[in-house]
Design a protein that fits this description.
By secondary structure, the protein is α+β, with helices and mostly antiparallel strands. The protein has 5 helices and 4 strands. It has a 4-stranded antiparallel sheet, covered by helices on one side.
């Protein structure tokens, strides 16, 4: 990956709706050379996918919550089972298996507290292998960035 690839990736991370001609002009390439570079970055897996980033509140997901989860039983099959349940939930936007005091961290985007309570019943009660969970409701977002610094 060279300097021009990094410029293209930074442009795409800021606004992927730019046309190929606009990006080519900004990095000093012909449109065909620019397109080939972007296609190569896709094919190599550097660009995983191009998505629209929505405003969660305007999309009806007004509550953001972080949940740390400690499992009763450990091991790959127990972790996989819980993660599979979590990622099947519409409100779970991110799910991480982590090291430290917690086993899993979830980021939720919720419509309301009723949805949160229903999710808690499904994910954290009965036979879900959860020893304990701690929920933190986000009251202010200081930084939320999707771009990776290159």
């Amino acid at each position: 990956m060279d300097r021009i690839d990094r410029k293209l990736l930074n442009l795409l991370q800021r606004d992927a709706s730019r046309t190929n001609v606009e990006m080519a002009d900004e990095v000093g390439l012909s449109p065909s050379s620019c397109l080939r570079r972007v296609q190569r970055l896709h094919k190599s897996g550097v660009i995983e996918r191009i998505v629209a980033i929505l405003n969660p509140a305007r999309a009806g997901r007004v509550i953001k919550a972080l949940v740390t989860v400690e499992l009763k039983l450990h091991g790959e099959q127990h972790m996989r089972r819980f993660l599979d349940m979590a990622i099947a939930e519409e409100a779970v936007s991110q799910a991480y298996a982590v090291t430290g005091a917690s086993d899993v961290i979830l980021m939720l985007r919720l419509r309301d507290m009723e949805e949160f309570h229903a999710l808690c019943d499904r994910l954290f009660q009965d036979e879900t292998n959860v020893a304990r969970y701690v929920t933190m409701i986000v009251i202010r977002t200081a930084k939320e960035e999707t771009a990776i610094r290159l």
